[in-house]
């Protein structure tokens, strides 16, 4: 994440703290900008620094949710921990790609676009369009999308509010896909480095 991206995520999280969500968790809304911007191609900030900057706002959101009647158990902590790991992995993938060759940068940008904003946009379009029709229901195929996109997952978890068990299970899929994307970028960066090394 660049400095401008960090400031944007911080500002959006501050705005989320001021919202009065009905039935949704502020915690998820505070995590949303961090997860949406974490793997933005061309990032410079290491994942742990991004997480360290997000933690104070996350703590305030947890406190506000708790004061509003939310009870946090181990399942809630699981999905928050998964979100932190996803944030670190996507940010690390962006930094690794930035330091590697152009092929790695293109690969990371494509993976990020597909997994983070692309699938989230598809999910929101399907969910919103099916809610407007009479008797419409979200198609079965669209229910897997929150298990693949960190943005759709955290939006779904925040909206579900109290179903932390489902959020944790879906988060494990998000974490696995993010880990695969990070591993693919890392593999490609090392392959590029070996190809460019003098023989």
List the helices and strands and how they pair.
Blueprint: H1 3-18, H2 26-37, H3 47-67, H4 74-98, H5 102-132, H6 150-160, H7 164-196
Helix pairs in contact: 1-2, 1-3, 2-3, 2-4, 2-6, 3-4, 4-5, 4-7, 5-6, 5-7, 6-7
Please name the defining characteristics of this protein.
199 residues; mainly alpha; 75% helix; globular
Helix/strand/pairing class, anyone? mainly alpha
Helix count equals: 7
Low-confidence stretches: none
Coarse morphology: globular
Brief account:
With 199 residues, the chain is an all-alpha fold. Helices cover 75% and strands 0% of the residues.
How would you describe this protein?
- This protein has 199 residues and is mostly helical.
- It has one domain.
- 75% of the residues lie in helices and 0% in strands.
- The chain contains seven helices and no strands.
- The radius of gyration is 17 Å and the shape is globular.
- The model has no long low-confidence stretch (mean pLDDT 79).
């Amino acid at each position: 994440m660049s400095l401008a991206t960090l400031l944007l995520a911080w500002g959006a999280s501050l705005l989320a703290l001021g919202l009065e969500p009905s039935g949704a968790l502020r915690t998820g809304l505070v995590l949303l900008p961090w997860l949406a911007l974490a793997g933005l191609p061309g990032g410079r900030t290491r994942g742990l620094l991004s997480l360290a900057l997000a933690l104070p706002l996350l703590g305030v959101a947890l406190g506000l949710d708790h004061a509003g009647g939310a009870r946090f158990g181990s399942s809630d902590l699981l999905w928050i921990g998964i979100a932190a790991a996803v944030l670190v992995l996507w940010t690390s993938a962006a930094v690794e790609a930035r330091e590697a060759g152009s092929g790695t940068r293109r690969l990371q940008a494509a993976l990020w676009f597909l997994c983070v904003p692309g699938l989230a946009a598809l999910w929101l379009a399907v969910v919103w369009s099916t809610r407007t029709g009479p008797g419409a229901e979200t198609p079965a195929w669209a229910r897997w999308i929150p298990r693949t996109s960190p943005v759709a997952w955290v939006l779904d978890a925040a909206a579900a509010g109290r179903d932390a068990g489902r959020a944790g299970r879906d988060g494990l899929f998000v974490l696995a896909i993010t880990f695969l994307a990070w591993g693919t970028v890392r593999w490609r960066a090392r392959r590029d480095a070996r190809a460019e090394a003098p023989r």
